[in-house]
Amino acid sequence: MRFLIVIPTLNEYQNIGTIYKKIVKLYKKANILFIDDNSTDGSKEEILDLRKKNKKVNYIFRKKRLGIGSAHKLGIKIAKKNNYQYVCTMDCDGTHEPKSIKIMFRHIKKYNLIMTTRFTYKNSLRGWSLKRIFITKMRYYLVRFILNTKFDSSGGFRLYDLNKIKLKDILLAKDSNYNFLWESAFILELKKYKITEIPIILHRRTLGSSKMRFKDIFYGLFYLLKIFIVFKL
Predict the structure, then answer these.
(1) Which domain holds residue 217?
(2) What CA–CA distance (Å, rounded) separates 68 from 10?
(3) CATH code of residue 167
(4) Are 40 and 13 in contact (CB under 8 A)?
(5) Residue 216 scores a pLDDT above 90
(6) Edge-to-edge, what's the strand order for the sheet holding 86-89?
(7) 218 pLDDT tier (thresholds 50, 70, 90)
(8) The total number of structural domains that make up the chain
């Protein structure tokens, strides 16, 4: 089974080697695509070193910060172009555990998209700061309430079956940053694709720093209301 794992990066030098080792230990045949948004901390050099060791490691180095959503879209486009049936997207910061991909594959035959939820286990956000917990929960409940969706749709740890999901439907989500995650899930749900989610523990980042800015949070609320008006009214 050929599948592609897409990992956006922005100044994740400290985490790239760790996530790579976990992936190749579990999925020796997986191809990995790093999409880097002009990191300045040595991330690109780390990725190039991994490429020398393993030809299944591929990369795209972008010249500026174009957003995590645009990285997801680009990775999915490349997967489709290269005839991968399955594409997994995940973060590089250590919060997503690669062993969960095996659980996703147990369900993918019955579904078109497997997402992950951080709100099944009682302590799934253990170790996170109160501010991060508040932001995560606030976004979760706002998206659920405003868009009337049943999923934890703002997470980027997913498995797509590209034989069942049309690329053009994924690309209907226009945002290029964090909002792409819940926007794309919402659109695919509206189009009646078969979606489910599996529970995960969202590990606390231990190295590096979050790339989310306050302006991302405020713009996210504005964009959420915009999508509500477009699709619900």
Answers:
(1) 3-232
(2) 9
(3) 3.90.550.10
(4) no
(5) no
(6) 57-62, 31-37, 3-9, 86-89, 158-161, 113-117, 195-199
(7) low
(8) 1
